[in-house]
């Protein structure tokens, strides 16, 4: 790793051409096992190798007995130490500095990576060279349990889909035997990857607990002692096993939605329906009723469980391209990249490898100098209803400005960050073009979309990497970040001014793009021409692209809007219209009423409102429909301590239902009962004892209010008047029209 001229491609892709790596397991003692799958024969090869564990320190004056090599450049972490045994090396340093663990030295003094990453960084190897996603042997399993808590529930059924696509249902009253059968299936199939939706949040923790209670060895890995190991992850503790990558498709869904922003939710069933992979006859059973149904109709639950693993397999194939692509670049385990944040999880390992490959010292994390970071530009030019809408997309504005004006971290003396961004932007644009060329709704389209989303996430995180304060990233530089935002505001002003000069009505603009309305007689060709003209005036490398056209738009607040496509599809964006805490009846009202609103049917909006009010007052809606999902953040003990001074509906509902034990993080559905108290939605019980007038007020003041910007105040009052006032307003509905209110900005 001496200082030398290194091809920039190596900074992104590594330099060792070893193909087919599907898993790496390394230990601090310098032993590593690498599994490789042959790209043509699919044969699995296992290699046992030795490597020298290493770390970086800011000083070695107190370590006279340890060999080291000093790296070039001004970086603070300049002393490279390696040894045959990493544990002995760490112990020597900790002993000399009187600490129990290296992390106590702080990021400003030491860089110490997990053993697998030490191995990958030092060797220049990456996962999946010369492989495509279809080369992986992937197994899916899903647990069906009698309840959510492993402390007082058990596994009664396991669905397993093997790498060849065969699904088998394991069931029986002997839970220990079920777990043994699962272990046997995994060992026989020998998958490279194990997948499920919420695998890390539910299945693995539940399985680990039950196996421990029943004393069943969980020999799911390819080597070593049985049992699951743990590591920290972005969403809490993650389980790992040697030789297999554990992939939670919930991570892929969240990463995809961060970029695409079009999913109705993140649960398996709703995502599968949205992406078109759910079968028409797919069995659906509410989660809290699965065991009850199994007792009377086990075949129905078997079909349900089989559909779960089949949908997970397709979902992973559609959206797994993102993490797969990241693993071909960043020196980390595939499973870790699947749940990593882009800045510290992907960019930082790439920078570390590039500097060490070049023989250069790394800067240490350091606090900022007190300079305030200036925020991004966001303009709401108008709110209400507009028609004939165009979305013009700014393809990665901030990274493009970084590239155009070569704005990078001051301490990145090699220019690695900009070099990586250069390569990723081009790759992302190619993936976007491939997605557009693929058949709509095809696996190929979703794979290219997933790859594009991954590249966009990493590219856009380059700016966030710059702007991270308080030493959160190694090369943080708020001054460079502020220069990027300054040029971004200039570019956005230029873009909006030139669009307005061409006769469009600006609606909303930010660093992602611009929404605007066009004159009535314009064709799609006119729309594309205007976008192309403005694009030609922008700084080099900044691209404004025609990204879509819509029949109408309801603009509520910045980043909160509804779009109606020309073929009648309604798209809702932002927490005002999409929220996991929203009551289902309110969401249903919004979808139906906004569709009528954007179609120009004001009487239809009034009709939907009256029907909903009537359904609430007649208690025709289920208790579930008026409930909201709440995540409990306090233990029973903590809540009871503060109860005397402040009472909270969710916890009062739990106590009123007789539930005195729960865990932080539990999610329950709560509603307001008559008299103002809280209730918990219970399995197989639909009490319908909710406070009707409370939910009528909620309908108007929370949900209907999100349509207020579409009307003049008197017109809004007419459309959403109480049913008892219907005769006063019925004649005036025909004269009501929607508004578009322009704002000074």
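Sequence proposed for the structure above (745 residues):
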């Amino acid at each position: 790793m001496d200082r030398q001229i290194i091809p920039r491609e190596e900074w992104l892709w590594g330099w060792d051409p070893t193909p087919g790596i599907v898993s790496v397991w390394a230990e601090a003692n310098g032993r590593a096992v690498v599994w490789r799958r042959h790209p043509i024969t699919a044969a699995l090869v296992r290699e046992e190798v030795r490597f020298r564990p290493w770390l970086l320190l800011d000083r070695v004056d107190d370590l006279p007995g340890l060999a080291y090599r000093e790296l070039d450049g001004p970086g603070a972490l300049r002393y490279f130490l390696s040894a045959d045994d990493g544990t002995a090396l760490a112990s020597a340093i900790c002993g000399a500095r009187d600490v129990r663990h290296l992390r106590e030295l702080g990021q400003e003094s030491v860089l110490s990576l997990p053993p697998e990453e030490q191995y990958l960084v030092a060797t220049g190897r990456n996962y999946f060279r010369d492989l495509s996603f279809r080369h992986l042997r992937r197994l899916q399993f899903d647990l069906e349990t009698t309840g959510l808590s492993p402390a007082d529930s058990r596994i009664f059924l396991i669905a397993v889909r093997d790498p060849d696509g065969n699904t088998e249902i394991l069931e029986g009253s002997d839970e220990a035997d079920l777990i043994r059968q699962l272990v046997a299936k995994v060992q026989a199939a020998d998958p490279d990857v194990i997948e499920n939706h919420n695998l890390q949040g539910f299945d693995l923790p539940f399985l680990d607990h039950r196996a421990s209670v029943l004393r069943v060895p969980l020999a799911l890995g390819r080597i070593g002692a049985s049992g699951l190991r743990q590591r920290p992850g972005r969403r809490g503790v993650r389980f790992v096993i040697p030789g297999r990558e554990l992939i939670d498709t919930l991570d892929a869904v969240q990463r995809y939605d961060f970029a695409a922003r079009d999913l109705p939710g993140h649960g398996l069933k709703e995502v599968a329906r949205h992406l078109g992979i759910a079968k028409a006859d797919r069995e659906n059973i509410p989660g809290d009723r699965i065991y009850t149904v199994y007792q009377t109709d086990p075949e129905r639950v078997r079909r349900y469980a089989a559909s779960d693993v089949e949908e997970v397999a397709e979902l992973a194939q559609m959206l797994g391209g993102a993490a797969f692509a990241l693993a071909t670049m960043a020196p980390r385990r595939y499973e870790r990249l699947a749940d990593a944040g882009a800045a510290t999880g992907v960019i930082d390992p790439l920078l570390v490898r590039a500097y060490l490959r070049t023989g250069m010292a790394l800067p240490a994390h350091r606090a900022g100098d007190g300079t305030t970071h200036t925020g991004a530009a966001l303009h709401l030019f108008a709110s209400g209803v507009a028609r004939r809408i165009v979305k013009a997309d700014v393809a990665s504005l901030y990274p493009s400005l970084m590239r155009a004006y070569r704005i990078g971290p001051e301490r990145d003396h090699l220019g690695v960050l900009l070099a990586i961004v250069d390569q990723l932007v081009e790759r992302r644009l190619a993936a976007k073009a491939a997605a557009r060329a693929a058949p709509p709704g095809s696996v190929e389209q979703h794979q290219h979309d997933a790859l594009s989303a991954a590249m966009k996430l990493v590219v856009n995180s380059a700016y966030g990497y710059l702007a991270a304060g308080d030493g959160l990233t190694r090369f943080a530089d708020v001054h460079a970040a502020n220069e990027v935002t300054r040029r971004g505001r200039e570019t956005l002003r230029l873009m909006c001014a030139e669009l307005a000069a061409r006769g469009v009505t600006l609606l909303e603009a930010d660093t992602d793009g611009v929404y605007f309305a066009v004159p009535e007689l314009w064709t799609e060709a006119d729309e594309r021409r205007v976008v192309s003209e403005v694009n030609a005036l922008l700084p080099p490398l900044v691209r404004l692209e025609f990204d879509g056209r819509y029949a109408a738009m309801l603009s509520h607040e910045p980043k909160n809007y509804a779009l109606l496509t020309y073929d009648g599809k309604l798209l809702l964006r932002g927490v005002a219209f999409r929220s996991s805490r929203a009551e289902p009846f309110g969401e249903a009202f919004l979808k139906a009423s906004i569709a009528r609103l954007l179609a120009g049917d004001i009487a239809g909006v009034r009709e939907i409102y009256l029907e909903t009010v009537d359904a609430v007052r007649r208690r025709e809606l289920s208790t579930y429909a008026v409930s909201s999902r709440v995540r409990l953040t306090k233990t029973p003990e903590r809540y009871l301590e503060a109860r005397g001074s402040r009472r909270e509906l969710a916890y009062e509902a739990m106590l009123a239902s007789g539930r005195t034990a729960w865990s932080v993080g539990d999610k329950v559905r709560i509603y307001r009962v008559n008299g103002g108290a809280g209730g918990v939605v219970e399995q197989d019980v639909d009490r319908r004892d909710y406070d009707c007038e409370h939910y009528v007020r909620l309908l108007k003041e929370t949900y209907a209010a999100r349509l207020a910007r579409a009307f003049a105040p008197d017109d809004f009052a007419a459309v959403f008047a109480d049913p008892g006032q219907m005769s006063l307003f019925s004649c005036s509905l025909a004269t009501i029209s929607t508004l578009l209110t322009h704002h000074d900005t």
